[in-house]
Amino acid sequence: MNYRNLGRAGVKVSEVALGSWLTYGGATENETAKSCIERAYDLGINFFDTANVYARGESEKVVGASLKPYRRESFVLATKVYFPMGDGPNDRGLSRKHIMEQAHLSLKRLDTDYIDLYQCHRYDDTVPLEETLRALDDLVTQGKVLYVGVSQWSAKNIQDALDLADKWGFDRIVSNQPYYNAIGRDLEKQVLPLCEKEGIGQVVYSPLAQGILTGKYKPGQEIPSDSRAADPNQNMFLNRGQLDQDVLEKVQKLEPIAQRHDLSMAQLALAWCLRKPILSSVIIGASRPSQVDDNAHAAGVKLDDATLSEIDEALGY
Fold first, then answer.
1. Residue 134 in 3-state DSSP?
2. Which class for 162: exposed (0-12), middle (13-18), buried (19 or more C-beta within 10 A)?
3. Total Cβ atoms within 10 A of residue 305
4. Which end of the chain lies in a sparser environment, N or C, as judged by fewer CB atoms within 10 Å?
5. Which residues are designated catalytic?
6. Are 142 and 107 within 8 A, CB to CB?
7. pLDDT value for 94
8. Ordered domains of the chain (ranges, CATH)
9. Is 81 helix (H, G, I), strand (E, B) or coil?
10. Maximum distance among all Cα pairs of the chain, rounded to whole angstroms
Protein backbone atom coordinates (compact mmCIF):
# COMPACT_ATOMS: atom_id res chain seq x y z
CA MET A 1 0.00 0.00 0.00
CA ASN A 2 1.15 3.52 -0.77
CA TYR A 3 0.31 6.54 1.38
CA ARG A 4 -0.22 10.20 0.60
CA ASN A 5 -0.65 13.33 2.66
CA LEU A 6 -4.22 14.54 3.06
CA GLY A 7 -3.67 17.71 1.07
CA ARG A 8 -1.12 19.84 2.90
CA ALA A 9 -1.99 18.27 6.23
CA GLY A 10 0.64 16.14 7.93
CA VAL A 11 -1.54 13.04 8.26
CA LYS A 12 -0.94 10.28 5.71
CA VAL A 13 -3.76 8.16 4.28
CA SER A 14 -3.70 5.06 2.13
CA GLU A 15 -4.17 5.69 -1.59
CA VAL A 16 -7.12 3.33 -1.45
CA ALA A 17 -9.68 3.90 1.32
CA LEU A 18 -12.60 1.71 2.34
CA GLY A 19 -16.00 3.36 2.49
CA SER A 20 -19.33 2.16 3.84
CA TRP A 21 -21.93 3.95 1.74
CA LEU A 22 -24.73 1.59 0.58
CA THR A 23 -23.02 -1.36 2.23
CA TYR A 24 -22.19 -1.62 5.94
CA GLY A 25 -25.03 -1.49 8.40
CA GLY A 26 -27.51 -2.11 5.60
CA ALA A 27 -27.08 -4.13 2.40
CA THR A 28 -24.10 -6.15 3.67
CA GLU A 29 -24.28 -8.51 6.63
CA ASN A 30 -22.31 -7.27 9.62
CA GLU A 31 -19.95 -10.25 9.66
CA THR A 32 -19.20 -9.78 5.97
CA ALA A 33 -18.61 -6.09 6.56
CA LYS A 34 -16.25 -6.95 9.40
CA SER A 35 -14.36 -9.35 7.11
CA CYS A 36 -13.96 -6.62 4.47
CA ILE A 37 -12.65 -4.14 7.02
CA GLU A 38 -10.25 -6.71 8.46
CA ARG A 39 -8.96 -7.57 4.99
CA ALA A 40 -8.50 -3.90 4.17
CA TYR A 41 -6.51 -3.34 7.34
CA ASP A 42 -4.35 -6.40 6.60
CA LEU A 43 -3.60 -4.99 3.13
CA GLY A 44 -2.37 -1.72 4.61
CA ILE A 45 -5.49 0.37 4.11
CA ASN A 46 -5.50 2.81 7.01
CA PHE A 47 -8.28 5.16 5.86
CA PHE A 48 -11.90 4.27 6.63
CA ASP A 49 -14.77 6.54 5.63
CA THR A 50 -18.36 6.54 6.82
CA ALA A 51 -21.16 9.02 7.65
CA ASN A 52 -23.82 9.42 10.30
CA VAL A 53 -26.58 9.17 7.68
CA TYR A 54 -25.43 5.84 6.25
CA ALA A 55 -28.12 3.41 7.41
CA ARG A 56 -29.08 6.08 9.97
CA GLY A 57 -26.07 5.46 12.22
CA GLU A 58 -25.82 1.70 11.77
CA SER A 59 -22.87 2.00 9.41
CA GLU A 60 -20.88 3.95 11.99
CA LYS A 61 -21.60 1.24 14.57
CA VAL A 62 -20.37 -1.53 12.27
CA VAL A 63 -17.24 0.38 11.27
CA GLY A 64 -16.44 1.31 14.87
CA ALA A 65 -16.92 -2.23 16.17
CA SER A 66 -14.85 -3.73 13.34
CA LEU A 67 -11.93 -1.37 13.96
CA LYS A 68 -12.03 -1.72 17.75
CA PRO A 69 -9.39 -4.50 17.93
CA TYR A 70 -6.78 -2.29 16.25
CA ARG A 71 -4.60 0.42 17.79
CA ARG A 72 -6.56 3.65 17.42
CA GLU A 73 -3.52 5.55 16.20
CA SER A 74 -2.96 3.02 13.39
CA PHE A 75 -5.91 4.13 11.26
CA VAL A 76 -7.60 7.32 10.06
CA LEU A 77 -11.34 7.43 10.69
CA ALA A 78 -13.59 9.80 8.76
CA THR A 79 -17.29 10.53 9.11
CA LYS A 80 -19.70 13.27 8.04
CA VAL A 81 -22.56 15.52 9.10
CA TYR A 82 -25.38 17.31 7.23
CA PHE A 83 -28.20 15.02 6.10
CA PRO A 84 -31.35 14.47 8.20
CA MET A 85 -31.01 12.19 11.21
CA GLY A 86 -34.55 12.74 12.47
CA ASP A 87 -37.81 14.48 11.64
CA GLY A 88 -37.27 17.64 13.69
CA PRO A 89 -36.33 21.01 12.18
CA ASN A 90 -32.89 20.91 13.84
CA ASP A 91 -32.13 17.28 12.94
CA ARG A 92 -30.27 18.26 9.77
CA GLY A 93 -27.89 20.77 8.25
CA LEU A 94 -24.77 22.54 9.44
CA SER A 95 -26.02 24.64 12.35
CA ARG A 96 -23.87 24.71 15.47
CA LYS A 97 -26.58 22.74 17.28
CA HIS A 98 -26.73 19.94 14.73
CA ILE A 99 -22.96 19.71 14.24
CA MET A 100 -22.23 19.51 17.96
CA GLU A 101 -24.98 17.00 18.68
CA GLN A 102 -24.12 14.77 15.74
CA ALA A 103 -20.40 14.86 16.46
CA HIS A 104 -21.03 13.51 19.94
CA LEU A 105 -23.46 10.88 18.66
CA SER A 106 -20.96 9.79 16.00
CA LEU A 107 -18.27 9.44 18.65
CA LYS A 108 -20.60 7.14 20.61
CA ARG A 109 -21.57 5.05 17.61
CA LEU A 110 -17.96 4.75 16.48
CA ASP A 111 -16.92 4.01 20.06
CA THR A 112 -13.92 6.30 19.86
CA ASP A 113 -12.59 9.39 21.63
CA TYR A 114 -11.94 11.40 18.48
CA ILE A 115 -12.70 11.60 14.76
CA ASP A 116 -9.69 12.04 12.50
CA LEU A 117 -11.57 13.74 9.66
CA TYR A 118 -14.99 15.33 10.17
CA GLN A 119 -16.61 16.34 6.90
CA CYS A 120 -19.54 18.56 5.97
CA HIS A 121 -21.50 16.15 3.79
CA ARG A 122 -22.95 18.99 1.68
CA TYR A 123 -23.07 22.80 1.82
CA ASP A 124 -25.85 24.39 3.88
CA ASP A 125 -26.94 27.75 2.50
CA THR A 126 -29.49 28.18 5.30
CA VAL A 127 -26.78 28.61 7.96
CA PRO A 128 -24.13 31.37 8.14
CA LEU A 129 -20.85 29.82 7.01
CA GLU A 130 -19.07 31.43 9.97
CA GLU A 131 -21.37 29.54 12.38
CA THR A 132 -20.53 26.24 10.70
CA LEU A 133 -16.78 26.87 10.65
CA ARG A 134 -16.70 28.12 14.24
CA ALA A 135 -18.48 24.98 15.45
CA LEU A 136 -16.03 22.77 13.58
CA ASP A 137 -13.10 24.77 14.90
CA ASP A 138 -14.39 24.34 18.46
CA LEU A 139 -14.51 20.56 17.96
CA VAL A 140 -10.88 20.68 16.83
CA THR A 141 -9.92 22.80 19.85
CA GLN A 142 -11.66 20.29 22.13
CA GLY A 143 -9.66 17.44 20.58
CA LYS A 144 -12.79 15.63 19.40
CA VAL A 145 -11.92 16.25 15.75
CA LEU A 146 -8.41 16.40 14.29
CA TYR A 147 -9.06 17.63 10.75
CA VAL A 148 -11.99 19.20 8.92
CA GLY A 149 -13.16 18.47 5.39
CA VAL A 150 -16.12 18.94 3.06
CA SER A 151 -17.93 16.89 0.43
CA GLN A 152 -19.39 18.07 -2.86
CA TRP A 153 -18.87 21.77 -2.15
CA SER A 154 -18.56 24.14 -5.09
CA ALA A 155 -15.37 26.07 -5.75
CA LYS A 156 -17.04 29.22 -4.44
CA ASN A 157 -18.16 27.47 -1.23
CA ILE A 158 -14.64 26.21 -0.64
CA GLN A 159 -13.04 29.58 -1.38
CA ASP A 160 -15.46 31.36 0.95
CA ALA A 161 -14.63 28.88 3.72
CA LEU A 162 -10.89 29.37 3.22
CA ASP A 163 -11.26 33.15 3.30
CA LEU A 164 -13.28 33.04 6.54
CA ALA A 165 -10.84 30.59 8.13
CA ASP A 166 -7.93 32.88 7.31
CA LYS A 167 -9.82 35.92 8.60
CA TRP A 168 -10.82 34.40 11.95
CA GLY A 169 -7.99 31.93 12.47
CA PHE A 170 -10.19 28.84 12.17
CA ASP A 171 -8.75 25.47 11.22
CA ARG A 172 -8.66 25.31 7.44
CA ILE A 173 -10.42 22.70 5.33
CA VAL A 174 -7.86 20.03 4.47
CA SER A 175 -9.93 17.82 2.17
CA ASN A 176 -12.85 17.64 -0.23
CA GLN A 177 -14.79 14.46 -1.00
CA PRO A 178 -16.14 14.78 -4.55
CA TYR A 179 -17.73 12.48 -7.10
CA TYR A 180 -15.00 11.84 -9.67
CA ASN A 181 -14.06 9.12 -12.13
CA ALA A 182 -12.99 8.64 -15.74
CA ILE A 183 -16.53 9.18 -17.06
CA GLY A 184 -17.49 11.87 -14.53
CA ARG A 185 -14.96 14.68 -14.73
CA ASP A 186 -16.86 17.84 -13.73
CA LEU A 187 -14.43 18.23 -10.80
CA GLU A 188 -11.72 19.31 -13.25
CA LYS A 189 -13.51 22.50 -14.31
CA GLN A 190 -13.29 24.65 -11.16
CA VAL A 191 -12.96 22.67 -7.95
CA LEU A 192 -9.78 20.77 -8.75
CA PRO A 193 -7.75 23.82 -9.88
CA LEU A 194 -8.72 25.67 -6.69
CA CYS A 195 -7.88 22.70 -4.47
CA GLU A 196 -4.54 22.18 -6.21
CA LYS A 197 -3.72 25.84 -5.59
CA GLU A 198 -4.82 25.74 -1.93
CA GLY A 199 -3.47 22.28 -1.09
CA ILE A 200 -6.82 20.66 -0.35
CA GLY A 201 -6.63 16.91 -0.80
CA GLN A 202 -9.29 15.08 -2.77
CA VAL A 203 -10.87 11.95 -1.28
CA VAL A 204 -12.78 10.66 -4.27
CA TYR A 205 -16.00 8.69 -3.97
CA SER A 206 -17.50 6.51 -6.74
CA PRO A 207 -14.14 6.24 -8.58
CA LEU A 208 -15.61 3.20 -10.36
CA ALA A 209 -18.85 5.02 -11.25
CA GLN A 210 -20.75 2.53 -9.08
CA GLY A 211 -19.31 -0.41 -10.97
CA ILE A 212 -19.67 0.84 -14.54
CA LEU A 213 -15.89 1.15 -14.93
CA THR A 214 -15.33 -2.44 -13.77
CA GLY A 215 -16.82 -3.61 -17.08
CA LYS A 216 -19.46 -5.77 -15.39
CA TYR A 217 -22.24 -4.07 -17.36
CA LYS A 218 -21.99 -5.22 -20.96
CA PRO A 219 -23.66 -3.42 -23.88
CA GLY A 220 -26.66 -5.34 -25.13
CA GLN A 221 -26.73 -7.70 -22.16
CA GLU A 222 -29.01 -8.03 -19.14
CA ILE A 223 -27.95 -6.27 -15.94
CA PRO A 224 -26.42 -8.84 -13.54
CA SER A 225 -29.01 -9.74 -10.90
CA ASP A 226 -26.49 -9.37 -8.05
CA SER A 227 -25.27 -5.92 -9.12
CA ARG A 228 -26.09 -2.48 -7.73
CA ALA A 229 -27.89 -1.52 -10.93
CA ALA A 230 -30.41 -4.27 -10.25
CA ASP A 231 -31.17 -2.93 -6.77
CA PRO A 232 -33.38 0.20 -6.76
CA ASN A 233 -32.10 1.08 -3.28
CA GLN A 234 -28.50 1.27 -4.48
CA ASN A 235 -28.56 2.51 -8.06
CA MET A 236 -29.13 6.23 -7.50
CA PHE A 237 -26.27 7.17 -9.84
CA LEU A 238 -26.90 4.36 -12.28
CA ASN A 239 -30.23 5.80 -13.36
CA ARG A 240 -28.74 9.05 -14.63
CA GLY A 241 -28.10 8.02 -18.21
CA GLN A 242 -24.84 6.26 -17.43
CA LEU A 243 -26.11 2.80 -18.34
CA ASP A 244 -26.88 3.74 -21.92
CA GLN A 245 -25.32 1.73 -24.71
CA ASP A 246 -22.93 4.48 -25.78
CA VAL A 247 -21.28 4.70 -22.36
CA LEU A 248 -21.07 0.93 -21.95
CA GLU A 249 -19.52 0.52 -25.40
CA LYS A 250 -16.89 3.14 -24.59
CA VAL A 251 -16.05 1.46 -21.28
CA GLN A 252 -15.55 -1.87 -23.05
CA LYS A 253 -12.75 -0.24 -25.04
CA LEU A 254 -10.80 0.03 -21.79
CA GLU A 255 -10.59 -3.74 -21.38
CA PRO A 256 -7.65 -4.35 -23.79
CA ILE A 257 -5.81 -1.41 -22.18
CA ALA A 258 -6.21 -2.98 -18.74
CA GLN A 259 -5.17 -6.41 -20.02
CA ARG A 260 -2.05 -5.01 -21.65
CA HIS A 261 -0.97 -3.59 -18.28
CA ASP A 262 -1.98 -6.76 -16.42
CA LEU A 263 -4.62 -4.82 -14.50
CA SER A 264 -8.26 -5.44 -13.77
CA MET A 265 -10.68 -2.85 -15.14
CA ALA A 266 -11.24 -1.62 -11.58
CA GLN A 267 -7.51 -1.20 -10.97
CA LEU A 268 -7.15 0.76 -14.20
CA ALA A 269 -9.99 3.10 -13.23
CA LEU A 270 -8.58 3.69 -9.75
CA ALA A 271 -5.06 4.26 -11.08
CA TRP A 272 -6.51 6.78 -13.55
CA CYS A 273 -7.89 8.81 -10.62
CA LEU A 274 -4.67 8.52 -8.64
CA ARG A 275 -2.64 9.92 -11.53
CA LYS A 276 -3.13 13.36 -9.93
CA PRO A 277 -1.00 14.06 -6.84
CA ILE A 278 -3.76 16.21 -5.25
CA LEU A 279 -5.92 13.07 -5.06
CA SER A 280 -5.08 11.82 -1.60
CA SER A 281 -7.22 8.69 -1.78
CA VAL A 282 -9.95 6.89 -3.71
CA ILE A 283 -12.81 5.42 -1.70
CA ILE A 284 -13.88 1.93 -2.67
CA GLY A 285 -16.94 0.03 -1.54
CA ALA A 286 -16.79 -3.70 -0.99
CA SER A 287 -19.38 -6.34 -0.17
CA ARG A 288 -16.82 -9.15 -0.06
CA PRO A 289 -13.10 -9.30 0.85
CA SER A 290 -12.03 -10.34 -2.67
CA GLN A 291 -13.18 -6.93 -3.94
CA VAL A 292 -10.95 -5.25 -1.38
CA ASP A 293 -8.00 -7.32 -2.62
CA ASP A 294 -8.56 -6.38 -6.25
CA ASN A 295 -9.05 -2.67 -5.59
CA ALA A 296 -6.19 -2.35 -3.10
CA HIS A 297 -3.70 -3.44 -5.75
CA ALA A 298 -4.36 -0.23 -7.67
CA ALA A 299 -2.17 1.58 -5.13
CA GLY A 300 1.19 2.48 -6.60
CA VAL A 301 0.17 1.78 -10.21
CA LYS A 302 1.59 4.45 -12.54
CA LEU A 303 0.00 5.01 -15.93
CA ASP A 304 2.22 6.65 -18.55
CA ASP A 305 1.08 9.55 -20.72
CA ALA A 306 0.46 7.34 -23.73
CA THR A 307 -1.86 5.10 -21.72
CA LEU A 308 -3.72 8.08 -20.27
CA SER A 309 -4.23 9.44 -23.79
CA GLU A 310 -5.50 6.05 -24.92
CA ILE A 311 -8.03 6.02 -22.07
CA ASP A 312 -9.21 9.52 -23.02
CA GLU A 313 -9.63 8.48 -26.65
CA ALA A 314 -11.55 5.32 -25.70
CA LEU A 315 -13.98 7.34 -23.56
CA GLY A 316 -14.41 10.12 -26.10
CA TYR A 317 -12.41 12.85 -24.34
1. helix
2. middle
3. 8
4. C
5. 54
6. no
7. 98
8. 3-213+265-301 (3.20.20.100)
9. strand
10. 57
